[in-house]
Design a protein that fits this description.
heterodimer, A: mainly alpha, Cytochrome C Oxidase, Chain A, globular, B: alpha+beta, Immunoglobulin-like, 18 strands, 16% helix
Chain lengths: 508, 264
């Protein structure tokens, strides 16, 4: 069940397998592919913004299509499938069960992802990943918008099926000797996001159908010309997608709980506080959705309620950060690549969390809303924290999956370039937002003080980060075939227990 | 647990900070949102991809807004098609214009000058070009003289309304605002130097006929510009000052609408 790549097997055996490690591997390969494709779109977008005017894109619609597919790809084809892939690989190991609860359902959930991805990519819609009506109903060109709707529909069903599988595996298939309060915190994070997915995603699934019938003209839920209300869509959308932010984030938090204590050679500071923070975030994550909509004309009371709901999520997040810092405190830290990415992720998590407090403070929201500040803010969490931590975890799992070590020097160069790149892009975008640059514009006025130079810094940063991921790709592909054999008991030489290789479950 | 105390202290400090941020924000927002009773109302209409402003006295402006320094204004935001967002970054005015709703935001302009108005909510093809100019006219007599100079430098955009006998016909076809549909009829219009062109807008949306290849052309609107032609209206283009040659033109509202003028 481990050392997947080391034992050569025919391709079809992996593709048609229902075994959790095979599915996990497929999930991870798919999501890393999506990361590269979505990243390529981002680099094209940044290259376009290097200079005012249109140089690369033939018209603004192409730019709009690029950022729509970039966002959709990174969120639904990278962040969610990667977490599901690691979950598939590790959850059965962590709860000591032979496989996921329903292996065939697991394979079905995975194979829906390439279908959804194909719809999104072949359609190349221009609605923005939020697909706000009435634009998405009355103006967005079809069939791209329809394909986007059905693609997202399929991806949503896939993540619900995956979540059901995780919940049953963790709650029902856990080894009788393993109490839930002894289970690893990564398993807790997957359990939390699975429950959140099941509560949150059906709302968006329903609004996608409503969006589709609105586009057909047979209903007018969100079409003001037919008596509907576009703001209703925003409520439904963010009821799903604010919790979804935590669904992206919590697996990364769980991975940090795997990495930090091991590389600090110290036990975790407080297990209970980690569990408490997961449960709190999973609950409070549902109390803040409308903070994305302060500028849509909400009443003062509504705004106050959602500001309080948003601020309430901060103590739980800061409990995680405290836990990591307290764990590292006084530890004999080994800065292997996974630890570097983890510590970088924590630093940027702190920065983006502080930015989030600024966003939710009511008067300040009207400075930052829909500006590049927001772009910088959510990329700092999704790229800076989530993706960097996921990347660290790719390196961390690499010996488990392949039985070989990656090139440590190249991985460290990757970290430095990625971290510096991320700071250059997204910190600069925060400032751009304060200088009033709106998001999602294909062209900008280079004579406005600061805009040109800041856009150019951001573009260079993006290309540095892009380059660093090419280094990773080469490193992984080369090392998988010809890397140094890993010491499977302790591949990172830290004297801490790695995952258990001795249990081998037959493929079925 | 022995070491739980420090964590409780830490969480307490975080909660105290957040409470302070929340209370302060609540208080400031409460004061900022209160619209003064004497505020003058300006109706702001957003549509793909330009802004129209209607003053209380019935005066209408397109693409620019003139206000007075030191007078509170209440903006009533509406949209004719998709969601837009009325934004003056220098004055932190920001509110969505949502079709089917009227949103209100107010401001008192304390500094005279020229500021930019932009759309901050994604609205399609022309989102990045959906801009307007805000002119804050000074209150004092001395400052007024300066302001006169400032506004004089702004390009005169008085629409050339059709007068006298109609010239060469150029028609903006119905449905021209949809990208890919036929827009100008004829697409290439050939005139003799000195001929007048009469543009008729048969579409249901406003359009312009503006020289240049598009909004990124540094020489756009240098040769001729009809400015906004409302639906059903006409405007004239004079070619007396144009040298023989080819002049591409486009619609500033829908930059994918392009055509060519050949002066012989």
């Amino acid at each position: 069940m481990v050392l997947e790549v080391k034992q050569p097997r025919p391709m079809w055996e992996i593709l048609f397998s229902t075994h959790h490690t095979d599915i996990g591997l497929l999930y991870m390969i798919t999501s890393i592919t999506a990361l590269m494709m979505g990243g390529a779109l981002a680099l094209a977008l940044r290259a376009e913004l290097f200079l005012p005017g249109l140089q690369i894109m033939p018209d603004p619609t192409s730019f709009n299509r690029f950022f729509t597919v970039h966002g959709t790809t990174m969120l639904f084809l990278w962040a969610i499938p990667f977490a599901a892939g690691v979950g598939n690989y590790l959850i059965p190991l962590m709860v000591r069960y032979k496989d996921m609860a329903w292996p065939k359902l697991n394979a079905v959930a995975f194979w829906m992802i390439p279908v959804g991805a194909a719809l999104v990519w072949l359609g190349f819609s221009d609605t923005g990943w939020t697909a706000y009506p009435p634009y998405s109903i009355i103006r967005a060109p079809g069939p791209a918008a329809e394909m986007w709707i059905f693609g997202l529909k399929i991806l949503g069903i896939s993540s619900i099926l995956g979540s059901i599988n995780f919940i049953v595996t963790i709650l029902k298939c856990r080894h009788p000797d393993l109490s839930i309060m002894k289970m690893s915190l990564f398993a807790w994070s997957i359990l939390s996001i699975s429950f959140m997915t099941i509560v949150a995603v059906p709302t968006f699934a329903a609004s996608l159908i409503m969006l589709y019938t609105d586009r057909l003209g047979i209903s007018g839920f969100f079409n003001p010309a037919m008596g509907g209300d576009p703001i209703a869509y925003q409520h439904l959308f963010w009821f799903t997608f604010h919790p979804e932010v935590y669904i992206f984030l919590l697996p990364a938090v769980g991975m940090l709980y795997e990495i930090i204590p091991k590389f600090s050679r110290k036990p975790l500071f407080s297990y209970q506080s980690g569990v408490a923070a997961f449960v709190l975030l999973a609950l409070i994550g549902f109390a803040s959705w409308a903070h994305h909509m302060f500028a849509t004309g909400m009443s003062f009371t509504e705004k106050t309620v959602f500001m309080v709901g948003t601020l309430a999520a901060v103590p739980a997040s800061s409990m995680h950060v405290f836990n990591w810092i307290a764990t590292m405190w006084g530890g004999r830290i080994k800065f292997g690549a996974p630890m570097l990415f983890g510590v970088g992720g924590i630093m940027l998590f702190f920065a983006s969390g502080a930015g989030g407090v600024v966003n939710t403070a009511l008067p300040l929201d009207f400075i930052t809303h829909d500006s590049y500040w927001v772009v910088g803010h959510f990329h700092l969490i999704l790229m800076g924290t989530v993706s960097l931590t996921f990347t660290g975890f790719i390196y961390y799992l690499f010996p488990l999956i392949t039985g070989r070590m990656y090139n440590e020097r190249a991985a460290q160069v990757h970290f430095v370039l990625a971290f510096v790149g991320v700071i250059f892009v997204f910190m600069t975008q925060h400032l751009l937002g304060l200088h009033g640059m709106p998001r999602r514009i294909a062209d900008y006025d280079g004579t406005i003080p600061g805009w040109l130079i800041m856009n150019q810094i951001a573009t260079i940063g993006a290309w540095v980060a892009g380059l660093s991921y090419v280094i990773m790709l080469v490193n992984l592909i080369k090392s998988a075939g010809s890397g140094k054999e890993a010491d499977v008991k302790d591949p990172f030489q830290i004297g801490e227990e790695y995952y258990d290789y001795t249990r081998r479950e037959p493929h079925h | 647990m022995g070491h739980a105390t420090i964590e409780w202290v830490y969480v307490g400090v975080v909660i105290a900070l957040l409470t302070w941020v929340g209370a302060e924000s609540w208080n400031v927002e409460r004061l900022v949102e209160h619209v003064p009773a004497e505020a003058e109302t300006i109706k702001v209409i957003g549509q793909q991809w330009f802004w129209t402003f209607e003053h209380e006295d019935g005066k209408k402006e397109t693409g620019q807004l003139h206000v007075k320094q030191g007078v509170p204004y209440k903006f009533e935001l509406v949209s004719k098609d998709v969601i837009h967002d009325f934004n003056v970054p220098d004055y932190t005015i920001l509110m969505d214009a949502v079709p089917g709703r009227v949103n209100v935001v107010w401001n008192l302009f304390d500094q005279p000058g020229e500021f930019r108005i932009q759309c901050r909510e994604y609205c399609g093809f022309g989102h990045s070009t959906m801009k307007a100019k805000l002119f804050v006219e000074p209150q004092t007599a001395e400052a007024a003289a300066e302001g006169q100079n400032a506004t004089a430098q702004a390009p005169a955009q008085a629409p050339v309304q059709s007068a006298g006998p109609p010239g060469m016909p150029l028609t903006i076809l119905e449905g021209a605002s949809v990208q890919g549909s036929p827009d100008f009829d004829p697409d290439t219009i050939t005139v003799k130097k000195g001929d007048k062109i009469t543009v008729t807008n048969k579409d249901t949306l406003p359009h312009t006929v503006t020289s240049g290849t598009g909004p990124t052309d540094p020489n756009n609107a240098k040769q001729f510009d009809t400015s906004i032609i409302e639906a059903g209206a006409t405007a004239d283009i004079q070619t007396t000052n144009l040298n023989p040659g080819q002049y591409p033109f486009y619609c500033t509202v829908h930059p994918y609408m392009t055509g060519k003028l050949i002066v012989q």
